[in-house]
């Protein structure tokens, strides 16, 4: 019951942000304009134009024109080809079932080559299933359908790329603006906590609250990489954005290091003045970061007033007592914060003025975006434990079974059931259950709404306008709530279908079909090649421990915390932690045992993050802290212990004891000394978490 209540709460939960009205209006025009033109011209199967118009619009990845045209063109052209061939192939039950098994598997498995290719595969699967369900007896009927599909897709491309174009770098600018907004918010909260001498629990909550900034940085990196694909002559705008993206990584590390330092200072009354001055510096950095966010979003109109960050005796105005009380490691962090602030100031100012890039190594920000060769990616996923392979096999099998069951039992519209089933089916059981609730609610409520609209509205022209409004509203709400998207998109498709066929009983058939589809999707995810999260989580957690150990080694072996190998190791840890946290969330959704059995898993991820934060702080202070001379010795022992814990976790064995670490007290620097002193305790807690972690 608690799982059902959790899914229902998520159904009504709104994501932060605003409705994407521009995207919604563009999608509405992509559906209604080709449909109206085809209807006026007496084009057969006009509804197919609206289908590809919507799918091609949703496939738009943003970024450079060439990249967008390539993705949207793939959906339009391949969609027309797939739709034509599927129309000719349909008709025989066992042939159709075989084609569904193979076709849906291939199009779902395409996601192993990236989200963009996976998105194209998803759109093609919808066209493939829909066209297979409406058999064209003659060749000219199939060609006509392909032409309708191509017409709708071509209009969507024409609208997005020529008639209503977007600036190539606008998605990247918005993504980087979000990163700097979050950095500014984090710095502002850091200042407030430092002033208040916050408790350890408050610092931990703040770190967890701002950890998703790693996701935003990765999204910005991916968006910028997509924008730059195929652009032989790089613009200065692109170079400036690359520099800002690179500098955001450095700023994030410094802010995390200051968080660790101020957490320690909160327990030292004699460091009250230090906390106050750090708070002022963080507030100034927050102001700068928010101004950079504004410039990244609107380079031509944003203001350029820059507050300064004090870092030395003259600027602080607190000579003597201030300098005597301030640990040298904190002064170094403040100097690094000022350095980051100055770098992003110059990059933002240069971008606003159109001046050449004056700071940073732009290409370093995207150096880690190189993709693996296709065959290597394919080979890596042809593994029995591959989530992508299992999901693709499951999707193809459920699609074939859905067709056979509905045809044999004569339930509703067979291919509508197939489409609904593969739409509900997700790689993980908890996500599938949530999607099932969304789809059932959306279809029942949306079907009722469609019936009311069909009863009240008698004019076909008015119905087309209603379809446009529903499309615009549903697509604009997609970023906020998938359930609302489903509820409003369902009558949209039902009205399109009834306008094409004139059969208003289709709503009743599809309401029955979605119930059957939910049952089949849930049965498939529970019974077909299940790989429960309790078996997947230990591997994900082990990857976090290994990445944490590697990050510690790289920091200890480097001259400073800004070297490329350190940045790469920090990014690897961040991605591994995000993956493990997502795995834990799915585990909590599907777990039926007592809640206390999950506490070791939570502790393992929490203290992995804390250890990495301590390592980050030590790396940022390494140039001046006396602890740097022993850091490599401690890192070697600690990383070896983390690797041993990871091996024990993967093998399900009791971990070996943690070796004693050569840590000595550093009385002259209360910050970096205490950071190193924390490492043994953090390792002990991680050891205990691995020892207790027995998920059954």
Your description of this structure?
The structure is a single chain. The protein is mainly α and 696 residues long. The chain contains 27 helices and no strands. Helix 19 (429-456) runs antiparallel to helix 22 and helix 25 packs antiparallel against helix 27. The chain starts with a helix and ends with a helix.
Task: Walk me through the topology.
Layout (H helix, E strand, L loop, with lengths): L1 H11 L8 H20 L6 H12 L6 H25 L3 H17 L5 H18 L6 H25 L6 H26 L4 H11 L2 H16 L7 H30 L6 H26 L15 H4 L4 H5 L2 H26 L20 H8 L5 H23 L4 H11 L4 H28 L3 H18 L4 H20 L4 H22 L5 H25 L6 H27 L8 H22 L7 H24 L18 H23 L4
Helix pairs in contact: 1-19, 2-3, 2-7, 2-20, 3-4, 3-7, 4-6, 4-7, 5-6, 5-17, 6-18, 8-9, 8-10, 8-11, 8-12, 10-11, 11-12, 11-15, 11-25, 11-27, 12-15, 17-18, 17-22, 18-22, 19-21, 19-22, 20-21, 23-24, 23-25, 23-26, 24-25, 25-27, 26-27
Can you give keywords for this protein?
mainly alpha, 27 helices
What is the strand content? under 5%
Q: What about the largest sheet?
A: none
Range of helix content: over 70%
Number of strands: 0
**Shape from CA axes?**
globular
Assembly state: single chain
Number of helices: 27
Q: SS-based structural class? A: mainly alpha
Spans of at least 5 consecutive residues whose pLDDT stays below 50 are 229-234, 313-320, 360-370
CA distance, first residue to last residue: 20 Å
Q: SSE order, as H and E?
A: HHHHHHHHHHHHHHHHHHHHHHHHHHH
- Mean pLDDT across all amino acids: 78
Radius of gyration computed on alpha carbons: 28 Å
């Amino acid at each position: 019951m608690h799982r059902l209540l959790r899914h229902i709460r998520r159904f009504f939960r709104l994501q932060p942000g605003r409705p994407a009205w521009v995207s919604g209006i563009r999608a509405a025009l992509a559906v209604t304009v080709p449909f109206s033109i085809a209807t006026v011209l007496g084009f057969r199967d006009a509804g197919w134009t609206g289908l590809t118009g919507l799918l091609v619009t949703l496939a738009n990845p943003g970024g450079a024109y060439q990249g967008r045209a390539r993705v949207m063109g793939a959906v339009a052209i391949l969609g027309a080809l797939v739709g034509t061939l599927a129309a000719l192939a349909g008709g025989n039950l066992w042939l159709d079932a075989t084609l569904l098994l193979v076709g849906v598997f291939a199009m779902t498995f395409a996601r192993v080559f990236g989200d963009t290719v996976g998105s194209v595969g998803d759109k093609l699967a919808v066209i493939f299933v829909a066209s297979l369900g409406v058999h064209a007896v003659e060749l000219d009927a199939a060609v006509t359908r392909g032409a309708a599909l191509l017409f709708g897709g071509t209009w969507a491309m024409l609208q997005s790329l020529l008639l209503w174009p977007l600036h190539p770098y606008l998605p990247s600018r918005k993504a980087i603006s979000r990163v700097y907004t979050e950095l500014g918010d984090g710095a502002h909260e850091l200042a407030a906590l430092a002033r208040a001498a916050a408790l350890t629990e408050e610092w931990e909550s703040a770190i967890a609250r701002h950890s998703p900034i790693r996701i935003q940085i990765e999204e910005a990196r991916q968006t910028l990489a997509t924008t730059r694909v195929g652009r032989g002559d790089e613009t200065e705008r692109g170079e400036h954005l690359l520099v800002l993206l690179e500098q955001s990584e450095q700023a994030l590390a410094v802010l995390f290091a200051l968080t660790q330092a101020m957490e320690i200072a909160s327990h030292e009354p004699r460091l009250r003045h230090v906390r106050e001055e750090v708070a002022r510096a963080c507030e100034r950095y927050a102001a700068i970061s928010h101004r950079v966010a504004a410039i990244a979003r609107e380079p031509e109109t944003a203001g350029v007033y820059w507050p300064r960050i004090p870092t030395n005796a003259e600027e602080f105005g607190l000579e003597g007592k201030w300098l005597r009380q301030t640990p040298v490691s904190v002064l170094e962090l403040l100097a690094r914060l000022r350095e980051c602030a100055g770098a992003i100031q110059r990059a933002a100012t240069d971008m606003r003025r159109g001046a050449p890039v004056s700071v940073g190594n732009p290409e370093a920000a995207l150096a880690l975006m190189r993709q693996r060769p296709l065959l290597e990616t394919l080979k890596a996923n042809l593994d029995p434990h591959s989530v992508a392979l299992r999901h693709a096999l499951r999707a193809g099998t459920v699609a074939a079974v859905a067709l056979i069951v509905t045809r044999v039992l004569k339930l509703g519209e067979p291919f509508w059931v197939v489409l609904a089933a593969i739409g509900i089916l997700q790689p993980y059981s908890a996500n599938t259950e949530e999607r099932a609730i969304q789809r059932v609610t959306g279809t029942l409520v949306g079907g009722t709404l469609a019936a009311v609209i069909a009863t009240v509205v008698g004019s076909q022209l008015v119905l087309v306008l209603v379809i446009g409004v529903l499309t615009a509203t549903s697509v604009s709400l997609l970023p906020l709530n998938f359930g609302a998207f489903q509820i409003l998109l369902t009558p949209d498709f039902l009205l399109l279908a009834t306008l094409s066929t004139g059969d208003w009983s289709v709503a009743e058939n599809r309401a029955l079909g979605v119930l059957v589809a939910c049952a089949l999707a849930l049965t498939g995810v529970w019974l077909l090649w299940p790989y429960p999260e309790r078996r997947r989580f230990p591997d994900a957690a082990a990857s976090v421990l290994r990445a944490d150990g590697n990050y510690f080694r790289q920091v200890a072996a480097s001259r400073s915390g800004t070297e490329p190998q350190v940045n790469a190791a920090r990014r690897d840890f961040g991605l591994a932690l995000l993956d493990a946290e997502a795995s834990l969330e799915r585990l909590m959704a599907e777990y039926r045992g007592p809640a206390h059995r999950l506490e070791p898993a939570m502790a393992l991820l929490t203290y992995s993050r804390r250890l990495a934060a301590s390592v980050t702080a030590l790396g940022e202070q390494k140039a001046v802290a006396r602890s740097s001379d022993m850091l490599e010795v401690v890192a070697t022992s600690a990383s070896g212990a983390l690797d041993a814990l990871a091996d024990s976790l993967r093998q399900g064995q009791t971990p070996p004891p943690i070796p004693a670490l050569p840590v000595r007290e550093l009385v002259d620097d209360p910050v970096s000394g205490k950071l190193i002193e924390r490492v043994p305790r953090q390792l002990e807690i991680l050891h205990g978490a691995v020892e207790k972690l027995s998920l059954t």
